[in-house]
Each structure stands twice: as structure tokens, then as C-alpha cells.
Write a structure and sequence with these properties.
Rieske_2Fe-2S_sf; 2 domains; Naphthalene 1,2-dioxygenase Alpha Subunit, Chain A, domain 1; binds FE2/S2 (inorganic) cluster; Rieske Iron-sulfur Protein; 4-stranded antiparallel beta sheet; 17 strands; globular; 34% strand; alpha+beta; 7-stranded antiparallel beta sheet; binds fe (ii) ion; iron-sulfur
Length: 356
């Protein structure tokens, strides 16, 4: 796991930090939360605790005891309940007060503020809403059959999930930032509720040989995205999980997972490789892919994400594929509205095609 943390004074953001979108975000990996253990994270001005009860089920809540504000992360886990460290009140798996210090059973109104979570594919996500409203969409996890185990890396950037997700809807960035050639849409971004997806083709090189690379992207809200990159001629599909969690409005953790699917004709990479077992091949390809991904995130996408100033676009641009790029940026801005409270919505000016 690679960690990069830069010094950052959150009281003096380098750019005009935009609000935190209301969304499902990464909490931690399943393996990081053992039975009877707990973890806390900060998001904005809030702290959220997660613990795994003896049944194996994870529970999350605001890290504040409703009695007199004790910090629950200093308390104990008892079966599927959590006990506050201040007066030992015990809250059950529904969050209700189960018993007080004097053994008084009381299922009255005192209740933890539970936070919605979901656990699948070895990942735990939680739902953040500025006013603690219930989630209005679900996460659909991709199926993992015939895919290698996910290998994760964790980084931190001075940015906001808005720019991270905008990145993948912005076709031009594949050419400008990642230096791919001949970038074109197969499917310009389409939205469906909380989902935004697109398919892009570009030229990739393996040695001197040119290959078609297809990038199939889907984001569900701001904290969960899956990018599948296929080089059919090489017989290889790489799935990137793009998970994020904002800490403040201008600081964000990015958790990237890499998983490999070997197609039948992977011997195209090299004929000798067809003799190796697929499991061993994925073990070789995964770290190589992770290093390449790290390079792109750290030295290329970072230019895109960090220290941005949000300005509603006023200059028209010539897009590619008959203006599909222009439409995609408009679509992204409109889609992003779903995740902001009314007072936090970003100002917009429609992109227009430049007349020459
Ligand atoms: S503050 Fe938690 S039990 Fe009193
Ligand atoms: Fe990128």
C-alpha cells in the first residue's frame, strides 16, 4: 500500500474549495476492520465511527454519544453493541439505548445517529449527506468472478471529488494529460440517476506496436467509480476501482484498486506467456499495472485535480467527435447537481461551440 501525505493547512486552502458532495464514499477495506474492532474517520466537521460486531456485521454511527457527547471510539464493543466510555451506556445494533450503567433497560428515544454503510467486494462504503438525509441511490458492485484479487493503493490529494470525477468525463484529458493519441468517443457520457458512464477509444503502445485501447468508465455518485480498460489484441482487461473520501472540502483520499481479467488470447503479449498459468500471470501484471497507475495519478492526473479554481466555463471550445466533448462537459455539470444541496450548487454557464 503506497501512502503519500503532503503538508496542507486546511485553514488556508490554495483554491476556492467547493462544498462536499452528498454521496457514498469509501470508509475502509473489509480486511481492515476485524471482529470486535472499530475505526473512525473525519469528513468535514464530522467524525464517523465504524465497528464490526461479533456477528461479523459492520455498523457505523456519528462518533458522539447522544447522552452527553462522549466519544464512542474510546468505548468498548460488546457483541453487536457499543458501550460509551463516559457513563457506560450501551447502544444496540439498531443504535437504541439498551441499558444504562445501573442495568436499567431502556429502549426509549435515546439513539445513536446511525450512518448508512454497505460492504461488498472487500470494500466498505458509507453515505455522507450534509443534513444526514438517507441515501437516494444504491451502489451496484461489479461481479468479481474470473477477476484477480483487487490490489489497493491509497493516496491523498489537495482536491475535491468534483474534479476527480470530472476528470474521467473529460475526454480531452486522456490526450492532454495522459498523452494518448487518437482519443475518440465510442459512447459519449450518458447519465442515469446517480450513474454517469462513457466509452472512449485511444491508441496505446506496447513496445513499438500500436494497439487499440478501450476505456469503459462508470461512476456511481462521487465516491465510487469503475474504469475497465481493455486491450483486446493483448487479451487483457484491467479494472480500476476509483474510490474516494473527502476529508475537508479541499483534501481527499483516493483509493485505487487494480484487478485483472485475462482473456483467452493473452498469448499475444508474448507467445511464451501462454505456457504460464493465468494465476501467476495476474500476479506479475498486477504490480506492473499498479506502478503505471501510480505514475499517472501522481504525475499526470494530479495536475488536473489539484489546486483548481472553479469557474463556470464561459469560453466555447471545439470538442472532438463533433462536439461530443462539449455536450459531455455540460452533462457532467448537470449530473453533478444531484449531489449538492440547493445552496451549494455550482454556477454554470453553458458551453457553446466557437464560431470561426
Ligand atoms: S456521555 Fe455517553 S453514556 Fe454518558
Ligand atoms: Fe486521468
Amino acid at each position: 500500500m503506497i501512502k503519500t501525505i503532503r503538508f496542507f493547512d486546511k485553514n488556508d486552502p490554495p483554491y476556492d474549495a467547493i462544498a462536499l458532495p452528498n454521496s457514498w464514499y469509501f470508509f475502509c477495506l473489509s480486511k481492515e476492520l476485524k471482529k470486535g474492532r472499530k475505526k473512525i474517520i473525519s469528513i468535514g466537521k464530522r467524525q464517523i465511527i465504524i465497528y464490526r460486531g461479533s456477528s461479523g456485521k459492520p455498523y457505523a454511527a456519528e462518533n458522539i454519544c447522544p447522552h452527553m457527547g462522549g466519544m464512542l471510539h474510546k468505548g468498548k464493543i460488546r457483541k453487536d453493541s457499543i458501550v460509551c466510555p463516559i457513563h457506560n451506556f450501551e447502544f444496540d445494533k439498531t443504535g437504541h439505548l439498551q441499558q444504562t450503567t445501573f442495568g436499567i433497560k431502556n429502549r426509549g428515544e435515546m439513539c445513536l445517529e446511525r450512518v448508512p454503510i454497505v460492504e461488498k467486494n472487500g470494500i466498505i462504503l458509507f453515505f455522507y449527506h450534509k443534513y444526514k438525509e438517507a441515501p437516494w441511490y444504491d451502489i451496484t458492485f461489479p461481479d468479481t468472478e474470473n477477476w484477480s484479487d483487487i490490489s489497493f493503493m491509497r493516496l491523498a490529494f489537495n482536491t475535491n471529488p468534483f474534479y476527480l470525477t470530472q476528470d474521467v468525463s473529460d475526454t480531452i484529458h486522456y490526450a492532454a494529460i495522459h498523452k494518448f493519441r487518437n482519443v475518440r468517443y465510442i459512447q459519449p457520457p450518458v447519465t442515469d440517476g446517480a450513474k454517469i458512464s462513457s466509452r472512449v477509444m485511444m491508441d496505446g503502445y506496447f513496445g513499438l506496436k500500436r494497439y487499440d485501447i478501450e476505456v469503459n468508465h462508470q461512476s456511481i455518485g462521487f465516491g465510487f467509480g469503475v474504469n475497465e480498460t481493455t486491450a483486446t489484441e493483448l487479451g487483457l482487461t484491467i479494472r480500476y476501482y476509483i474510490l474516494s473520501r473527502p476529508v475537508t472540502r479541499s483534501r481527499m483520499y483516493l483509493i485505487c484498486g487494480v484487478s485483472i481479467k485475462l482473456l483467452e488470447n493473452f498469448s499475444n503479449i508474448h507467445p511464451l506467456l501462454s505456457k504460464l498459468p493465468k494465476k501467476l500471470l495476474t500476479k506479475i501484471i498486477t504490480p506492473l499495472t499498479s506502478v503505471a497507475l501510480y505514475f499517472h495519478l501522481k504525475f499526470r492526473d494530479r495536475l488536473y485535480w489539484e489546486d483548481r479554481i472553479y469557474t463556470p466555463p464561459t469560453q466555447g471550445v471545439f470538442g472532438i467527435t463533433n462536439g461530443a466533448h462539449i455536450n459531455s462537459l455540460n452533462m457532467y455539470l448537470n449530473w453533478s447537481d444531484h449531489f449538492y444541496c440547493e445552496e451549494d450548487k455550482l454556477p454554470k454557464t453553458k458551453y457553446t461551440k466557437v464560431q470561426r
